[in-house]
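Re: the request from the purification team.
They wanted to know what the chain is likely to look like in 3D before they choose a buffer screen. I agreed to run a prediction and write the result into the notebook, where they can find it.
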Amino acid sequence: MIYMWIILLMIIGSLVYIGYYFTNITLYPKTFNYDESYELEVANGCFDDKYYKELDKEEIYIDTNFNYKLHGIWIPHKNSKKTIIFAHGFNYTLYGSIKYMDMFYKKGFNVLVYDHRFHGHSGGENCTMGYYEKYDLQSCVDWVINKVGSDSIIGTHGESMGAATVLMHAALDNRINFAVADCPFESVKEQYTYRLKIEYKLPSFPIINLTNLVTKMRINAFYGDVSPISTIGSVKTPILFIHGDSDKYIPYSNTINLFNAKKGTKKLYLAKGADHAKSFIVDKLHYEEVVNEFLSEVGLLHLASPCK
């Protein structure tokens, strides 16, 4: 009998270990060094170092509802009432969003870039793949309205996990006028199932079930609570969906499903030959043209060709 108990405890211990191991990968990821991410973006030609350094900007910290602060950079544009807020991708920093900045800044938008919780210089004890991050984005909107005024025109732009965050935020905050979601996942459960198969050659059962329970224990949220596809149907905000058609990390079928589920004003752009989060890098001019068209369609921009 004692051997049966030992075996049972070993099985339980193994299951708990598996659950904690896989949740640690996403809840406590190894994140990029803040300064190194800047150097990497400049080295890769994502933005011009001299131009960025000459911009009028302010380093800020934004209060959240969870007793930590979000670190951000505010780049004002001549007392403009229009603001774009950028949400970067998993394990990176706000510098991953700077490459998208100028297409909005030169159209008269103020710019707010910020580090997600547990990333860059922001606080927060873990990463929740958009669950608590969507409330942090809501705090960013609060900050902009307090800064610019209640008559603000506000847009959000997210990349990868940031895109999923933008979509979930749009379901709970109707103060934004538009959103751009670049390569989002449709749900954490589907994305984890896909990555388990690709990276570990493992089936979803029972690992997804185990990690789902452990995640609930650790952050008080199930995978079903981190699911843009489950709330996108209620979103009235105009959304531009973007995805590379060669994305090997988050298949573009995620964006197709989200686009089809979204009601009302929407636009879809599949970037030819672009891998994950590379749609802008592969064809900057076309990316900006699509953004221009979208902003014009929602009445926020007179259609104009991007600067060549």
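For the purification team: The first strand starts at residue 58 and ends at 63.
Please add any questions underneath this entry.
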